[in-house]
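Section 3.1: Structural characterization of target chains.
Under the original work plan, the team committed to producing a structural model for every single-chain target entering the pipeline before any wet-lab resources were allocated. The record below documents one such target. The sequence was received from the expression subgroup and is listed exactly as submitted; it comprises 405 residues.
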Amino acid sequence: MNFNEIIRVAIRTLSRNKMRTLLTMLGIIIGVTAVICIVGIGKSASEEVQDQIESLGVNMLFIQAGSVNSGGIQLGTGATNTLVVSDAQALLREIPEITMVSPETDTTVQAIFAGQNWATRDQGVGPDYFAIRNWPVVLGSGFSDQDVDTAAEVCVVGSTVARKLFGGDNPIGKVIRVKNLPVTVIGELETKGQSTFGRDQDDVIMMPYTTVMKKLVGVDWLQLITASIDSKNDVSLATSQIAALLRQRHHLRADENSDFSIRSPQEIAQTVGRISLILTVLLSSVAAISLLVGGIGIMNIMLVSVTERTREIGVRIAVGATEADVQNQFLSEAVVLSSIGGLIGVVFGIVSSLAVSKAMQWPTTVSLASLVGAVAFSAGVGIFFGYYPARKASQLDPIEALRYE
């Protein structure tokens, strides 16, 4: 028989007992549905994390004040006071791969305006910070180098702070009080939303770092320097150069630990990406168990079918069917059974993904590769678990098969 005839006979044979066929396919359907849903959710989670990382800015490095050992106790990141403004200026001046820098220090403040008050984070940054973070000012403007030089009492507010203090009014030109310091609002930032870790990025007030250092916290050191790298391919080179330059400037011996740390958003993205991949693979493996259970069901039903159709097999062999013909016939039934189950599972998987997306307000991405892979895997299950029953059928003794009752 040709291929079309084999498939036609397989479908006709399977349709003789519709309920048994449907129950046999159920394991495949559930498995494919689960795999598509999990892969879709996992891929969407990875894309969401990547978007959040990219929202931090592009090709960035964070140089943070390091830990210090006090009486044998490590006080943790940010405990040193050796990171200073001149370090940031030296990085920009001496490392070609660095295109912009922003010295930074921050504190927690209570912002007050016309009877309204809001506890928020006050972040002192440089004029290039908004370009480094890819965070545009949508109302008014950012501050200038002159504002930094004069420690001007100006600020740019995040959308959350603007909403809490001013409601729907235009905040530009209004004066708020921050730790008893009157500060004029000159700009409002574009809404960023929550970060990967759930923090509201828009709940912030930004001032020139000199204003925060001199008039709010009274320090002459930095907590952080954010640097923009010309290309992400230069991140590793820039990291080593920054470390060498800062160690030299801080007069650290070869046997001394660095009093700063260098981080990149790409490190965060890679770590979160690995976690997401591990969880997706783990959950997909659990879902794949349903496919294996479905495959075992197919093998069981095919063995029953071989037993029920022993006399039919004997007749076919007696009238000229070869072992290959018999084997192909039973194998095609197993593949058709698993493939139809896979196709139904694909439909259910797409519908389930959309339902999860709507119910949980979580975007899901169903890729063509996952659909094709699920169907191909289900067909492979049919071949793997259908081979033994098909082989057994093809090796029946025709005389014994004709005598079978």
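The chain has two domains: 3-52+270-403, 103-228.
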